[in-house]
Structure formats: C-alpha cells, structure tokens
Specification:
Length: 423
C-alpha cells in the first residue's frame, strides 16, 4: 500500500477521462469515465489513485501530516486546459462596444482606430511589471474558474524586441500564478503600423529575425498566424509556418474566423497541431481537418460575440470526426476568462453534450496544446484537478458560471474558497 500526501474524499462523482485514444474523436468524445462516489489520492504532485471511495483505505495510506480535502458531495474533473488565449496585453477596448452595437464589423472598427492595433499601442507602452501584474491577475481568475493550464499567444507588440519581451515574461507569470503556460508566438497577428502597406516585408522580418530568435531561446512551443483578409494571406501564412516548422516549432492557424480564408486547408496541408476559430469552415474543410488529424480549437464565446448566428460549429466538427478542443480566446476583443462559461456556450450554441464539452476542455485541449500529460486523472499523471460543489458532471455546461471550491495543480492548491453545494 503506497503512502500519499493528499486525499479528496466524499465525492458524488469523478470524471477521469483516463481511457481512450488521445485526442478523442466522434462518439468517443462522450466517454468521460465517470466514477460514482469517488475518492482521489495524490503523491508527490501526481495522481496516485482514483476510484470508488469504498476502496480508498485498501488502496492507499495517508502519510503523517497529509491532507484530507472534504469533497462534500461535489465532483472532481481534470483541471481545464484553455487551448487558445491572447491573455498578455495592456489596456481594454470597451470603447468598441457602442460601435459593435451599431453593427460595425471587426474590419470597420479596426479602420476607426480600434482592433488589434489599439491594443498594440497600449501593450508597447506598458512596463514589464504592469504586463506581468495584469496578466497574472487574469490567470489567477482563470485558475479560480478551474483552469490549470493555458496556452498564451504573443501578438500585441508586433516588433522583434516587443514580441520577444511578451514571450519572455510568460514564465514569470506562470510562476506567480501556479498555472502552466504554453507559449505561442503570434508575431503574425496584424501588420504593424511601421509596415503599413508592406505586409510582405513584415513577413520577411518575422521569418528572418523573430522566428530564429524565438527558436534559439526556446521562447515558444507553437507558431500561429491570423490568416484573414486584411491580415495575412494563405501564401504569407504558409511562408511563416514552414519557417517555424523547420526551426522545430509546431503550427497553429487562426482560420476562417470572420470570412473564408483558406486557413483550415493550409492547417491540414501543413499537418498543423490545430486550426482555430473556424466559424466559416465548410464541410470540405471539416473533412480535410479530420483526414489530417488536425484539432479544431473552438472559441464559442467569440462565436457568440462576433457572428450573427452566435454559435460555434462544434456539433458539425464532432460529427465530421475532427478532434474538438475548447478555449476562451481571452483577448481585449472578447474578454472571457472562465472555462465553465465556455463549456456552457459549447453546449447551448455549439450543441455538444456536457460530456463532449468536458472532453474538449480537458484531454483534447491538452492535446491541442501539446500537453500529453495533462487533461486526464490517471495514476502517474500530474495532479491537476478541479473540485466543483456540483452534484453531477452533467451540471457542467448547464451552470454557466459554475465556481470551483478548490483547484489543484501538481498537488498544490492554486485557488480555493468556501462555497456550499449548488442547489
Ligand atoms: O482570436 N483574431 C485575432 N485575434 C483575436 C482578437 C484579437 C483582437 O481583436 O485583439 C481573436 O479573436
Ligand atoms: Fe484568437
């Protein structure tokens, strides 16, 4: 019998997502491995055991000085992996809301001094400390909502020193918050003012100066491109992503967000890790993503905010056999930090079942973020888990703004609060 540091007892249910292929596709997305009346044990930051509570005493022994966390009839799920954010930025863009309410498009708002370049001005002007403080506060709130890992993109500096600065600050933010951060280089988020009308010259700067430096200093795991008219074309995106791949980074693409861009097909052709947004993706795009095994990272709150239909095509993607993952897309454009709210939109607008949404927010989001160890609760895996005061896993996606009682990353509490059971 093995000694453990921490046990979580008295759980109505645990969903481990421990069995099945990674990533999950099709009907397998609805299998979340539910254990009724469960308990969980942690040793040295990793899951030691998870199973029916009646077997706990025979399975493990709590070491002297160990902790018992009372589950109080709640549920445990793997810590959420937020697979797509633009969380490092300064300022806000609340001033855009009246324009949005008046029906102005994303492109029109950008022309009127809003959009990405407005945030670039604020971010360039912010000190390191201000950026670390603001981003750490955001990640702390994400953790309080159940997120233990988050992908964060650069993209609001758009010059060599500034983009590298954003990526260099991320480890500090991760240490401060306890949240695992996966860094993505998104130098190709927009063409900066210095290169207005000379997008190709900026692409050359990315390829020749920024990417080699990002790779040499190991500042990012992924390279992403905003492939959209007015931003970067398919040939420009391809040039950047091929350069990134040759330097050992993996590819992601902001594809078919506002209009049909050809980004999804590019992602399939390059064997990208993920194609993201996909609000305008066609049946043909879905087939190509499925055939290439490229994950669709869907951002249902952005879909709600920026489209007339107000929904992300989650059901269509799952039915086409594409591995679906979820993220907040937290940015000054659609500022949401809570994965439970994202799950609720994936269920209500995206028409996923709560179980499918949970898969998309854990094991599949971990895969889309290159974190093969995260997103499941199985012996030997990092003890990243979230305890909700909810009576059943089916309540996730139903309670839009569900709040966890405790959130653990690698066996350490990164968020906790006193809450009674939801009734
Ligand atoms: O994913 N599409 C590009 N990037 C963000 C929005 C960025 C911004 O408007 O600041 C997105 O929606
Ligand atoms: Fe995005």
């Amino acid at each position: 019998m093995s000694g453990v540091d921490l046990v979580v007892t008295d759980l109505a249910e645990a969903a481990t997502l421990a069995r099945g292929p990674v990533p999950r596709t099709g009907p397998a997305m609805a299998e979340v491995d539910r254990i009724p009346r469960a308990a969980l044990a942690v040793a040295d930051g990793r899951v030691a055991w998870v199973g029916p509570e009646r077997r706990l005493r025979r399975a493990v022994r709590l070491r002297t000085g160990g902790t018992t966390v009372p589950g109080r009839g709640g549920i445990v799920v793997p810590g959420f992996v937020d697979a797509h954010t633009h969380a490092i930025f300064a300022g806000d863009r609340a001033f855009e809301l009246p324009l949005k309410a008046a029906g102005r498009s994303y492109a029109e708002i950008a022309r009127r001094g809003g959009g990405i370049l407005a945030t670039v001005r604020a971010t360039r002007a912010a000190s390191d400390d201000a950026l670390v403080r603001a981003t750490a506060e955001r990640l702390t709130r994400m953790a309080a909502a159940g997120t233990t890992s988050v992908e964060v993109k650069s993209g609001y500096a758009l010059d060599p020193t500034g983009e590298l600065r954003l990526l260099r600050l991320l480890p500090r933010i991760a240490r401060r918050t306890g949240v695992r951060v996966v860094p993505t280089f998104l130098g190709a988020h927009a063409v900066p003012p210095e290169f207005a009308g000379r997008a190709d010259a900026y692409v050359e700067q990315i390829v020749r100066r920024m990417l080699p430096e990002v790779a040499r200093r190991r500042l990012a795991r992924f390279c992403d491109v905003f492939c959209e008219p007015g931003y970067f074309t398919v040939p420009q995106a391809e040039r950047i992503l091929r350069a990134a791949l040759s330097l050992g980074l993996e590819a992601k693409v902001h594809a078919e967000e506002f209009v049909v861009s050809g980004g999804a097909r590019l992602a399939a052709r390059l064997g990208a890790r993920s194609a993201d947004h996909l609000l305008r993706a066609s049946a043909g795009d879905r087939r190509q993503l499925a055939a290439a095994g490229v994950s669709a990272v869907l951002l249902p709150v952005t879909a709600f905010a920026v489209t007339r239909e107000r929904r992300s095509p989650a059901r269509e993607m799952v039915d086409a056999g594409v591995p679906v993952a979820l993220g907040t897309d937290c940015s000054p454009n659609t500022w949401v930090e809570s994965m439970p709210i994202v799950l609720a939109h994936a269920v209500h607008g995206g028409r996923l079942s709560p179980a499918e949404a949970l898969t998309a927010a854990t094991v599949n989001a971990a895969h889309a973020s290159g974190l093969e160890e995260a997103g499941t609760l199985a012996p030997g895996r990092p003890a990243d888990f979230t305890l909700f005061p909810l009576g059943s896993v089916d309540q996730l996606g139903y309670r839009f703004d569900a709040i966890p009682t405790v959130v653990y990353r690698q066996g350490n509490a990164i968020s906790s609060r006193r809450l009674r059971q939801y009734v």
